[in-house]
Specification:
The complex is a heterodimer of chains A (about 300) and B (about 140). By secondary structure, chain A is of the alpha/beta class. In chain A, about 60% of the residues lie in helices and about 10% in strands. Chain A has two domains: about 60 residues; about 220 residues, ATP synthase, F1 complex, gamma subunit (Pyruvate Kinase, Chain: A, domain 1). Chain B has two domains: about 80 residues, Sandwich (ATP Synthase, domain 1); about 50 residues, Single alpha-helices involved in coiled-coils or other helix-helix interfaces (Up-down Bundle). The longest helix of chain B is centred in the C-terminal third of the chain and has 24 residues. Chain B starts with a strand and ends with a helix.
Amino acid sequence: MAGLREIQSRIKSIQDTRKITNAMYMISSTKMKKARQALESTEPYFYALQSAMARIMRHVPELDNQYFEKEGETRSRIGLLVISGDKGLAGSYNHNVLKMAQQFLDDTDKEVELFVVGELGRQYFSGRGVHIEENFQYTAQHPTFSRARWIRETLLEKYQSGQIQEIHVIYTRMENSFLSETEDSMLLPLRKPSLAQIPANVYQEDFLLQPSPEEAIDRIVLSYMTGFIYGALVESFCSEQNARMVAMEAATNNADELLHDLGIMLNRARQAAITQEITEVCSGARAQKQKTNQAKEMQI
Amino acid sequence: MASFSLRIISSNRIFYEGPCRCLIVPAPDGERAILAHHEEMILALREGELRMQTEEGGEWSYAVISPGFCQVAHNRVTLLADTVERPEEIDAVRAQEALERAQEKMRQKQSIQEYHITQAALARALVRIRETEKFIH
């Protein structure tokens, strides 16, 4: 059995760690509450935006717009927006995002330009020698609309100048409070669903695009991109806080369990030491007694 | 008179959900009114003032919106915009500061990217200030 002192020092160190994980749990749970609120107020917009866009894409007439997918066009350069966290200790949150991004890089034979939100993702990719866009320094904390606008502007500038021909976003979507899903979605170019995908019995409305189809699409795409990026930032931030909260809660519980086991071990060890001491004292006393008895017998 | 169902969603809340008689929105080429049974349409919106009357002869309510778009189909209208605010919610001081910041930036040399952002910020600030001046005397 391990010595008393070793067990005690282990208990001490676990208690210290538990204090940290517990504090982190409390911090992330308050942050989580705020993030949740932001998410709940943004979610209707985020989903309405996506369904409205899907609807527009179903009904829009054939247009030769810069944002639309052109048939038979080869796209050789992809812009990839990866939304990771600023800090670690958030369970598998960052791991999942980075794994998906790495997979994306490994699978494609096209040139990929990386735009990374969050310090952890930047460190991961620069550590692996993957080239990332240098002037793209945005944090994942407290997503705001103006940050989404800047990100959109950076991506669109590259897209419009032809430096990238495709824009993908990898972010984490909050399914519910227990489940979040890492997702990869293509933002641009917009893809028209093929005719086979539209059920035949659905009435096809003829939408009038105002002021002109070309201008309407140009403006709507701007708004759609900002909205999508903002939504993705909010979803990811909330997922990160949630993942951290769950991970820290598990760590605290684990520490409690360890402390309980170690407490039992410590008590056993202490009792064993006491028992041993008593036995030693007793046997010593008995030996002493025998000695005196023998001496007495000798005198008689 | 007939009404249509309207949903106005901004990035941080559902601004309005319910019946509406007449909706006037700022389009890139001028204001546009939508009444019941409007033709099916997708309309791009610019920053500006939105007006709606929920019932015949009722009060008009006003709001300031930033760019977005609006979808009209089957007597249902869905309006999506980055922000939608009532005039009394606008922080006039903040809008004024934003305006000055944007004007300051406009005078400096900036990239195309910065120019777009500043121009949009300037337009938003101007609309907000105009709206607060109209309602708060």
